[in-house]
Design brief:
Elements (H helix, E strand, L loop, with lengths): L1 H17 L5 E4 L2 E4 L3 H33 L8 E4 H18 L3 E5 L5 E4 L1 H18 L5 E9 L2 E8 L21 H7 L5 H11 L3 E6 L5 E8 L1
Parallel strand pairs: 4-6
Antiparallel strand pairs: 1-2, 3-5, 6-7, 7-9, 8-9
Helix pairs in contact: 3-4, 4-6
C-alpha cells in the first residue's frame, strides 16, 4: 500500500514539474516561482496533509475499537426476559418437533429477567433447539428446564436421542467439529451451532457443558450470570 502511495506521489511531482509548476528563472541570484502557486498548494495538500489525517484517524479509530472489545456485553445492553425468549422459540419450533414425533417439554419459570442482548440470547437458545431437531433423530422427547440460584440462571436441555460418545463430548463446542462427517453432511449440519452457543455463554460470564443423558441421549447445561 505504501509503495502504491509513493508511486502516486512521484507521478504527481513529475506531472507538476512537466507542467511548469516548479519552473524557475534566474534573477538577482534567487529563484522566482511561477504563478501556479494555488495548484502547487493543492498538490501539497494531496501529498502531505491528507495522508497525515488518514493515518491519525486509523490510529484513533483502532484504539477506540480495542477499548470497545473489552466492554462487557451486560453493561451495554438492556433488560430482557430469558423465559419469554425460550417460549418464543417454543412457539416457532413446536410444529417441527411434532413432525419428528418429539415431545417438547418446557419446565421454566414465567419470567427470568436479566441484562443482555435479546438477539444473542435468542441465538444461544435457538441453536440448541436446532441441534436437537437436526441430530436427535430417534428422540421421543426434548426437555427444557430453567431455574435461578445465587444470582445465576441454570438451563438444562435434555433429549433421549442417539447421544454423543464420551470421547467426543469435550469437543462438540469447537467450531466445525463433527462426530460423523458423513452424517452431518447428510443432515445438513454446519458444525457451528454449538460453538456459537459456547461463545455467547462466555460473553455472559457463564459456561456450557455437555453430558450423556442417563439411558441415552444428550444433555446440555448452561449457566449464565445475571
Amino acid at each position: 500500500m505504501f509503495n502504491c502511495y509513493l508511486l502516486f506521489v512521484t507521478i504527481c511531482f513529475l506531472d507538476a514539474h512537466d507542467d511548469g509548476y516548479f519552473a524557475t528563472s534566474r534573477g538577482n541570484n534567487c529563484y522566482i516561482v511561477r504563478k501556479q502557486k494555488s495548484i502547487f498548494l493543492i498538490i501539497v495538500i494531496i501529498i502531505v496533509i491528507i495522508p497525515i489525517i488518514f493515518f491519525v484517524v486509523i490510529i484513533i479509530g483502532g484504539e477506540r475499537f480495542r477499548e470497545l472489545q473489552y466492554v462487557s456485553i451486560i453493561e451495554c445492553c438492556k433488560s430482557i426476559d430469558a423465559a419469554l425468549i425460550l417460549h418464543q422459540i417454543e412457539e416457532e419450533t413446536a410444529a417441527l418437533f411434532r413432525e419428528r414425533n418429539i415431545q417438547l417439554q418446557m419446565n421454566t419459570p414465567k419470567t427470568l429477567p436479566m441484562q443482555g442482548d435479546a438477539s444473542l440470547l435468542y441465538s444461544l437458545f435457538r441453536n440448541i433447539f436446532s441441534n436437537t431437531l437436526t441430530y436427535a433423530t430417534d428422540a421421543t422427547y426434548f426437555r427444557v428446564q430453567a431455574k435461578a440460584s445465587a444470582g445465576k440462571y441454570f438451563f438444562t436441555f435434555t433429549d433421549n436421542g442417539p447421544g454423543v460418545p464420551n470421547e467426543h463430548l469435550p469437543h462438540i463446542f469447537e467450531r466445525f467439529y463433527r462426530i460423523d462427517k458423513g452424517r452431518s453432511r447428510r443432515l445438513g449440519g454446519t458444525g457451528l451451532g454449538l460453538a456459537i452457543v459456547k461463545n455467547i455463554a462466555l460473553q455472559y460470564g457463564g459456561s456450557v457443558t455437555a453430558s450423556q443423558t442417563p439411558g441415552g441421549g444428550l444433555t446440555i447445561d448452561i449457566e449464565l450470570s445475571v
